[in-house]
Amino acid sequence: MASNLRELRERRNSVATTKKITRAMELIASSRIIKAQSAVKAASPYSLELTRALSAVAAHTHEDHPLTSINPDPKRSAVLVITSDRGLAGAYSSNAIRTAEELTTTLQPKQEIATYLCGRKAVQYFEFRGRKIDHLWSGFSDSPTYRDAKDIADRLIDDFLRPTEEGGVDEIHMVYTEFESMLTQTPKAIRLLPLAVVDPQDTSEGQLAEGDPGVETSAEAIFHEYRFEPDPVSVLDKLLPLYVANRVHYALLQSAASELASRQRAMKAATDNAEQLIQTLTRQANQARQAAITQEITEIVGGAAALAESARQE
């Protein structure tokens, strides 16, 4: 009985220590998510205006640009998967990986897939299964910068402009997690390249381009009379790399906010579960201690009764 009581107390102390850790991680995630949300909101206006400018230039350009020309028969596509570098974030990384696997299954029968990974969780997933990784980035999942996005975008554009015979790709798809609220984070798969811009003759409402920040407006409000210097093609050459880098940066910011929200929720659930387990172990320890006391009292009373009976017989 004493051994059982000691085990219960040791386990309760261990759970209490774990509770302190999960509570600390919950508070850290809660404090950092405000900053992550602010970064997403701050990046939205620039993303929208850049998309507007790109759509306007593309509408006034009659030449086919490499980043906007769609290959009717793609032979090789790249899939960029954005996950976290650390665990303890609930199903955040697994949901993104599952969405990427569904996208790969859809694309693979017709073309070869090149895998680009951002985040150690995705790297571990693919390495454990012995699958080829074409390029990877890690170390900044919860606090990405524009320089990180620029590095990714430069590699994507270089591979997109390279012929498939030399290891290039015809399409680039991106899988990231969109932050909707503290309780809802949705994995999304979008085509990053080639870009899909709005037709100036189409007056229906919809997204400015595939994978934009989600702001809806009419094409009529976008396309005005513009004057481009030196010419639309040169402006488009400058805007498209900026647009790709901005889209990657925006996806990284959305994913970072989603990761922190998922971790905060997971750590809160772990803390609550630890509290319930501590209460259960405390109750079991009290019952074991009470049983041990009762047994000792019974043994003492039984021994005293035996001594009294022995004295009467003498």
UniProtKB/TrEMBL annotation:
SUPFAM superfamilies with a match to the protein in the record: ATP synthase (F1-ATPase), gamma subunit
Gene3D superfamilies: 3.40.1380.10, ATP synthase, gamma subunit, helix hairpin domain (1.10.287.80)
Keyword check for Cell membrane: yes
Membrane topology value: Peripheral membrane protein
Molecular function, one GO term: hydrolase activity
Subunit text: F-type ATPases have 2 components, CF(1) - the catalytic core - and CF(0) - the membrane proton channel. CF(1) has five subunits: alpha(3), beta(3), gamma(1), delta(1), epsilon(1). CF(0) has three main subunits: a, b and c.
Family recorded in the similarity comment: Belongs to the ATPase gamma chain family.
Protein name: ATP synthase gamma chain
Organism from which the protein derives: [Propionibacterium] namnetense SK182B-JCVI
Gene: atpG
